[in-house]
Amino acid sequence: MKLRLRSPKVVQDSSVAGEAEVDERSSQSCWANMPSELLREVLIRIEESEDKWPSRKNVVACAGVCRGWREIMKEVVKTPQVSGRITFPISVKQPGPRDTLLQCFIKRNQSSQTYHLYLSLSQALADDGKFLLAARRCRRPTCTDYIVSLNTDDMSKGSKTYIGKLRSNFLGTKFVVYDALPPHAGNRMAKSRSTRLVGTKQVSARIPPGNYPVAHISYELNVLGARGPRRMHCVMDQIPASSIKPGGVAPTQIDLPTGSADYFPLFRSKSSKFEKSVSSPSDDPTEGSLVLRNKAPRWHEQLQCWCLNFHGRVTVASVKNFQLVASPENGQRGPEHEKVILQFGKVGKDVFTMDYRYPISAFQAFAICLSSFDTKIACE
């Protein structure tokens, strides 16, 4: 009877693999067991020094070392509202800075019907930028959908990187912005065909599928047929009108559910309840939602065109260019109603700048700008 002996090479490989696994565990425990005071001081210095992309990727890398590092980085890294920086994926769902416009730009690919949002890394109107979001246009018989994703290679509603969509009516004059996650506790999911696909292959089981309406956009009909600027009207359903006032608060998503933790490992929640993952906008049921209107342009006699002051951020005249400001609740206009909350304009054939501020997020601003790309049969 012959006995088969294991190959020495296999035995050697198993031994090496075992030693490597032990070394990895000991190395991780070494980093994880650093004194918390020393670790916090080190991470604070890293966060302060790496304040711009691409060097800011080191901040993200620190948050991925272990659970202890991740929890400290979540405390050290402030939201865009406070820091004016976009660091983690959840940042695109959080309101922008209060005092300044966060400068971004959109690149359009007309052949593939896709749009990519980038964070500007310099004052130049065209640079490489830091990728933030991608959208794909899907034309349907009665409407048009723009699927928004965190992944440029997978822009489908069934993807775990899907974060929301924009839907228009047939004429392209009315739009609804849907969020894949509820912006605050108690928000109801809209009834649509997409919400009835739960359990099928078209919806991923990793993320709770849903269409939560967060904004309604409308363009006024141009019944006279005159060539002129578009008139926009945006109702931010989940943002109270008081958010633009001093001390006002807008809903801020601070965590993601456990189902999406494999794609967002830096924001793993201990509970799947949304009450603990987001802050509620307001407890006053009588308070109205924030309404945004496009800033009225002025007619330039010498140039024979409508003009707005984009402070050098827009270089090409286009009917798509706009600036949005808050509309007064009771007709009483204050200084907070003069601040531009979102501006969008053309700088090249397929390049557009997008600058936004508090109380809207990058996702909401991107969705509003996507509505400007859609064909307006009745408005032009």
Automatic annotation (TrEMBL):
PROSITE patterns: TUB_1, TUB_2. Residues 92-375 form the Tubby C-terminal domain. Pfam families: Tub. Gene3D superfamilies: Tubby Protein, Chain A. It comes from the Eukaryota. Belongs to the TUB family. PANTHER family: TUBBY-LIKE F-BOX PROTEIN 9 (PTHR16517:SF158), TUBBY-RELATED (PTHR16517). This is Tubby-like F-box protein. It comes from Coffea arabica.
